[in-house]
Design a protein that fits this description.
The chain has 186 residues and is α/β, with parallel strands linked by helices. It has a single domain, classed as Dihydrofolate Reductase, subunit A. It contains seven helices and ten strands. It has an eight-stranded mixed beta sheet, with helices on both faces. The longest helix is centred in the middle third of the chain and has 12 residues. It is globular, with a radius of gyration of 16 Å. The model has no long low-confidence stretch (mean pLDDT 96).
Amino acid sequence: MATIVYLTNASLDGYIEDERGAFDLYEPDDDVFAATTALLRSFGTFLYGRRLYETMSVWETDPTLAEASDRRADFASIWQAADKVVYSTTLTTVSTARTRLERGFDPAAARELKAKATSDLTIGGANLAAQAFAAGLVDEYQLFVWPMIVGGGTPALPAGIRTGLELLDEHRFANGVVYLRYRVPS
């Protein structure tokens, strides 16, 4: 069975976006970008909330991003090759190939998707991920923790969820970012 991995950037004080809703706080250097690309290569399906999908869809809809460098072209290729499921009550259509729109998150349907998947899935978007956490569907937490304090905003992890985790990997980057990979014990 495939795993569902929550992969996100977070400030040291635990936020994925600041109080204004900006999540462009985390500008990766080449090493962090390469590490993120390597991680995404293993996922066959991306589960997204609306805002994250709209942010990431530029990797298909804006060809100038891929033209900027070989590293960006590789990222765009990986992103475009994956299946995407977008959960939104406000979107009426999607702008990218290999993308399905769902009106709401159904834990049973997500379990079935996970059971049938031939490669791992990643989930992103704070509200969507919180629903998956509550349903017990997230198998791994992978965080890029950035050396900054933003003082408030959208938490990377939801309140009200308590679980022990097993550290699988960690890596410190030269720019001060720390990558942490945890598994939910079975």
